[in-house]
Amino acid sequence: MDPSESTTRAEARRRGLKTRLLRLPGQSNDEHVRILQDTWTDVLVWPLIFCILAGVEWIQWWDSTPPSPWVPSVLAVLSMCYAYWKYRTLRPEIQAYKLGRDGERLVGEMLDQLRVKGYRVFHDVVGEGFNIDHVIVGPAGVFTIETKTRSKPSQGNSRVIYDGKTVRIGNGVPTDAPLNQARAQARWLTDFINDGCSRKFGVRPVLVFPEWYVEQIGAWRESGLWVLNPKGLDDFLDHESQILTNQQVDFVASILTRHCRQLAA
């Protein structure tokens, strides 16, 4: 090998990859977790500084050097109290983001298994001020996947009821908010994919609840929106007609790939 060629390759490795990577499942939630953790870490710096100052003063006091430990000690206590309060404030939000992230990663692993059936899978597709957890493109069409991860109750009702208009999670109150969110994401993706295209592609919304039993009742089939446990998605897709050719799947996937790489950090 030419030494100059070896040097060029080494420099390329040091500069990093030129191709931007696609986003990972739960990446938005992971970014939120890091931001919140960094916020608390920044707050924790001050108690450590004041504790060190107080410790120096107490050592001087012990060594009979004229000390003045009270001011840094009071500041250390106050800053520690504030840091603890900040931690208690941020902890539920961090846990919620972590739960959402883990749920998206679990669903992402299940969706990746669809690749053997000709589906293209995208994670954490960023929109205008929001993100779509997953998008799949394959023979049955284009689907947005919104993941709702909830901790199951230790006792009582642990199922999701979907009637086509609302969902009821456990013993909660029926709501249409998750359904509206999933439909809004599908509408945005429809407009995005079809922008400037002569062939118009439809996008169907899917709402999944990992590790929950989902019961569909009433006229849910007429709603145009699936609500289910992600384990059942494979079977739902198998019963759908093939509406996209391999060329059409590749075309839509190329649009999403280009979009995701442009937004990759």
List key phrases describing it.
alpha/beta; three-stranded mixed β-sheet; five-stranded mixed β-sheet; 265 residues
Q: How many individual β-strands?
A: 8
The helix content, as a percent range, equals 40-55%
What is the alpha-carbon Rg in Å?
Answer: 26 Å
CATH architecture of the largest domain: 3-Layer(aba) Sandwich
How is the main sheet built? 5 strands, mixed
CATH class of the largest domain: Alpha Beta
CATH topology of the largest domain: Trna Endonuclease, Chain: A, domain 1
Structural class: alpha/beta
Count of discrete structural domains: 2
Distance between the termini: 34 Å
Helix run count: 6
Strand order, main sheet: write it out: 1-2-3-6-8
Strand content: 15-25%
- Uncertain parts: 1-17
Shape: elongated
Kindly describe this structure.
This protein is of the alpha/beta class and 265 residues long. It folds into two domains: 78 residues; 150 residues, 3-Layer(aba) Sandwich (Trna Endonuclease, Chain: A, domain 1), CATH 3.40.1350. It is built from six helices and eight strands, in the order H-H-H-E-E-E-E-E-H-E-E-E-H-H. The strands form two sheets. It has a five-stranded mixed beta sheet with strand order 1-2-3-6-8. The N terminus is likely disordered.
